[in-house]
Amino acid sequence: MQVDISEFGDDTAKELGRILRYWGGNLQHITFEPGQEQAIYDSAYREVGRLAVEDS
Amino acid sequence: MNVKTGLGLLLLAASAGQLLAPRRVFDDPERLFGLPVVPVFVLGAGTTLFTVGVILLGEGVCQRFGAPSLAGMVIDDPVRLPWLLLGGVTAGVVLELSAQWLGRLWFYPYWTPWFYGLIVLPGFAFYWLSIVASYLAAKAVLDAVARPGPRVSITPAVPLLLGALTLLTSLTCTILWYARRGFSLAPTHPVPAAPPFFLIAAALTGAALLAQGLLLRRRLCSPAGAVRHGYWVPGAAVLLASVVLSVVMEILNTAHHHWAYAHFPGPAVAGVPVLVFVAWPVQYLIFLLVPSLVVPGLADLLWRPTPGRDAAGRPGTATAAATAADSAS
What we know:
The complex is a heterodimer. Chain A has one helix at about 10-25, and strands at about 1-5, 35-40, 45-50. The longest helix of chain A has 14 residues, at about 10-25. Chain A is an alpha+beta fold. Chain A starts with a strand and ends with a strand. A three-stranded antiparallel beta sheet of chain A has the order 1-3-2, covered by helices on one side. Chain A contains one helix and three strands; from the N terminus they run βαββ. By secondary structure, chain B is mainly alpha-helical. Chain B has one domain. Chain B contains 13 helices and six strands. Chain B has a two-stranded antiparallel sheet. The chains are: A alpha+beta, B mainly alpha.
């Protein structure tokens, strides 16, 4: 998971926590195969990163 | 169809069993401490089956569409269950206090005051779970098909100030109405007079606007925050869920009147005031917005796009994965 935290300011911990809980909580719906990818949005509905399954 | 969906539909069908209870069961029932035991049991069992059915059906739909659900939230962190129930109680208190205590818009004809005191808070917490589950199911479906809508500019202070002003004014007028006529609690029987309907409707709308404004102020996800970015699914899901659930619940209730309406102006359809159906989306908004302020993480669950959808509702790459995961379960 890559998240751009530059816009979060003082709310970085809260905003990142919300993102991790929401997208992390929905991981059971993902098949872990390379190429799977989702956009990550913050509370203001701005795209701030990607959740991707990649080959190591 | 997954197991949860099938079981949910089965329980919903079973809840209609209350329609088979003969009229004589309700006409002159035996009473225990004033409570008509058999009618309360029949209607309570029907309502319980219906509520659990809606929750399971909602969970099944969310699973089918790979969307977050209440069960997922609780399984991830069981500490959230008491928080969720507290959220349901809070929303129930806001609704019951405004529309029943002050508005006298409905009453529970088979209940006694002591039974009402026992059941009203846990009952609302339980009922609230079904409202949220139905909303999340509608949102999951709409997230899968919706296209982005127009962006709307909303200044965060507007819903906050408008809501506070509307709520304060309508509550003040309602309290003045009772100051002239006297107040008595009447949750189990009809009373001849009630404050004008529009005052209660304004109080509930004001409470919803105020909660929305507070969500924007706290920089949490919310329906107004969503439409600012062209994501209209939350509002549409409120409408879809409230229309479907209101029609089914109100039709079931016309048989034996587990709850009965009073002081709704305007025409009625099949014995149900038309304004009841109009008020259902407002009930949903109260039930979703107020707890969003109380329960940690709930605003994200209710108002964010389903992962794999973008902020305007367009599909990402997770849809196929979700479908595959659903088929496998």
